[in-house]
Amino acid sequence: MGTLPPYQGDFKRKCVRPDFNLTFFRKYGKFTSKANLENAMGFPVYDYRTDVRNVLITPQIRSRFLRMEPGQTAQLHSHDLGHEIFLILEGRVEFEIDGETEELGPGQMCVALADQPHKVRVLGDEPMTMYLSVTPHIHPTHTPRTEDGERLPHNFAPSSAYDVEPDMGISVSELVTRQIHAAQRLAELAQTCAAIQEEMGHQLTTAIAEGDENRAIAARKAMWEALYPVYKAVSELGDVWNQLAPRLSQ
Question: DSSP class of residue 27?
Fold first, then answer.
């Protein structure tokens, strides 16, 4: 029957590898179905040895495991909006970020901020695996650069480049309509938010000056409650845009 993958700690906190195909698994000396086991887990757990792909794609963040072969080099590029974090899991690489070069190995990480040109090259004879995340994730996600760092035309990659299956049942016309509505909704919320920030901002500074902590806390709460829906609306706008923009590349 083979062996179960290793566990650490309480069984309830762990999951089996995605490629483990046994129908039944041992739990506390008994066998349970894979379906029951997955239901008990409650949320997906990803393994960099088996899930070498994009694992989360939202307007707020894109995250993935990436494997590169010895000698492989990624093209110099930047992100207009996104900060990118790299954490090396296996192998060694050379990063160039904004003209500076550093060598990284397992357990080390680095960051390329928005608009900072960056590229990576695998060192040695072993493959390299890393975790990376870009936040936010808004198309066009990449701006190619020349070797001198000059900007090239944006790269509107298809959704499939990020392991996302586009919903072709939604027409481009419908997506444009949704985009307009989302933008209008954001504008309305931003206008309301601006008025509340002004009113509550004055109340906040007055309360602080007068030492009225309760009033200051109430003003801050009102400011946040007006700001929160704006950020939610930005994400909703980004979600529609991320469906619309790549459709010209499908």
Answer: E
